[in-house]
Amino acid sequence: MNNYSKLITPVLLGALSGLAVNVHAAGTAAGTEVTNTATLNYQINGINQTAVVAEDKFNVDIKVDFDLARLNTSGANQTSLETDDVIVAAFVVNNTGNAPTSFAVTAANATGTTVNINSTDYIDTIDLTGTYTYYVDVNGDGQLDTGDTAITVTNEIPADDSVTIFVVLPKENIAGVDGDIAVTDLTVNGVASTVNATTYNLDTTDNDPTNGSSTDDAATANGATTIEVVYANSDTDNSEVLSDVLELLFPNLNGDGTTNNLTKTSVVISDPINGTTNPKAIPGAVVEYTIRLVNTGSASATNVTVTDTLPTDTTYVAGSLLVSYDDLATPAAADTTNLTESSGVITANLGEVAAGEANVIIVRATIN
């Protein structure tokens, strides 16, 4: 796996895949010359005279129009902070204007904000720190890949086209616990539009076309060769802001400080005098230990191993080691692949323990 592909968590990859982006038609391209011709035909003494032509021309002006959309529309982006860098937000910038346009992107932490995604409210509970890095999804696959480009200003996006932008932070700049929410605001401004080889640098502070570009021809409105700039995006201010959500998902094998998620209990199941009827913990009695591990967090725990050393005053009962991966009170069968016993030391390689999953290990020992 390449370095960039590691930046995005598996949960986020699944959420982003297969998403379609709709871009609305921008209309006639800026700089298109529109010609209107009137023709006069007449006769003198029944003889056709040379036609007289009157012609008017104007260039189609630049319509700066764009909108933002979350890449993950089904819910929050999610991470367990297993990678060095984390995508905290993912946006699509749609150029719905009529000219190729570049855009500046800036992210900021939003404190205490509530964002509704797919009818679910996400309330910001943690603040992000550090410097954001912005990547353009070059191949449009909805994932952060090696070829994706770090930017602060996009290349010009053609009219009726879009790009995806990932906002990335190092994981050390994200501090929180399971279920915490971080809201990030992305601000996008049009920077420049190019028409007929002329670049129009767009004003990002107001919507006055007379200062919208250093080459804006508003002083000669709709002249034969003039190009003007009109901001048609929301609020006509050449700026759009959208919030996206990151949810922290961690496993919890420790408990809540009051109740432990790893428990061990014992019961005497037989002794040499009473058999299985009200047995006592006397020499020769068989004790059954039950170890239960539950993950009460929101993400899977991986490479989980439980080790248990039987008391020195007991002897392991051969073949008694059992495990249930679905929280059965009495496991059905031994797992000789993932459970081992050596010199009274029990090792259970449980692998991945999913959120909400409980595993039960049973082992028996005879009191010496």
Describe the sheet with the most strands: 5 strands, antiparallel
Q: What is the first-to-last residue Cα distance?
A: 53 Å
**Number of helical stretches of at least 4 residues:** 1
Summarize model confidence as the mean pLDDT.
Answer: 86
Roughly what fraction of the amino acids lie in strands?
Answer: 35-45%
Show unreliable segments: 1-21
Q: Helicity, in percent? A: under 10%
What's the SSE pattern? HEEEEEEEEEEEEEEEEEEEEEEEEEE
In one word, what is the shape? rod-shaped
Which strand order do you get reading across the main beta sheet?
Answer: 6-8-14-12-13
Helix-strand category: mainly beta
**Total separate domains:** 2
Q: What gyration radius follows from the Cα positions, in whole Å? A: 34 Å
Tally the beta strands: 26
Main features:
single chain, five-stranded mixed β-sheet, five-stranded antiparallel β-sheet, 368 residues, 2 domains, 1 helix, rod-shaped, 2% helix, Immunoglobulin-like, disordered N terminus, mainly beta
